[in-house]
Amino acid sequence: MGRKLPYRLKVIGQPVPELSWYLDDENIDNNEDVVITYDRQTGFCKLIFVDIMPEDAGIYTCIASNPVGEAKTECELKVRPAVVTTDITQLTSAKPGETENVQTSTIVIQQTPSK
């Protein structure tokens, strides 16, 4: 989570197709959480997830259409909640001739997906 992830594909068609992107049947062409690039000359397209979060999970569909017809491709994005582990070390002050006691504990912070 919180990482950038690109999804790449190549679109071929004459005339050059128009593209529309969907997340679970909802259009995301103007969604600020993703960046969509499409080079109409090469046909290469990228869907870039700027900051992946659990709510970004789902079925992504790209529909390419032109006057000749329509084609689509789908992929499923699964997002696992992040598990952050922090080690905390506690030192006690030792007097001369004594050893220091070191206690280590682990704290696990897990983000649960939004509903």
Structure description:
It is a single chain. The chain has 115 residues and is an all-beta fold. It has a domain at 5-77: Immunoglobulin-like (Sandwich), CATH 2.60.40. Helices cover 0% and strands 53% of the residues. It has no helices and nine strands. The strands form three sheets. It has a four-stranded antiparallel sheet, with no helix packed on it. A three-stranded antiparallel sheet has the order 1-5-4, with no helix packed on it. A two-stranded antiparallel ribbon has the order 8-9. Strand 2 and strand 3 (26-27) form a beta hairpin. The protein is elongated and about 50 Å long. The two termini are 16 Å apart.
Mean pLDDT: 76
Order of helices and strands: EEEEEEEEE
CATH class of the domain at 5-77: Mainly Beta
Distance between the termini: 16 Å
SS field, number of helical segments: 0
Number of beta-strand segments: 9
In the sheet with the most strands, the strands line up as 3-2-6-7
- The helical percent reads under 10%
Radius of gyration: 24 Å
CATH fold type of the domain at 5-77: Immunoglobulin-like
Organism: Bugula neritina (Brown bryozoan)
Pfam family, one: I-set
Region (Disordered): 94-115
Keywords: Disulfide bond, Immunoglobulin domain
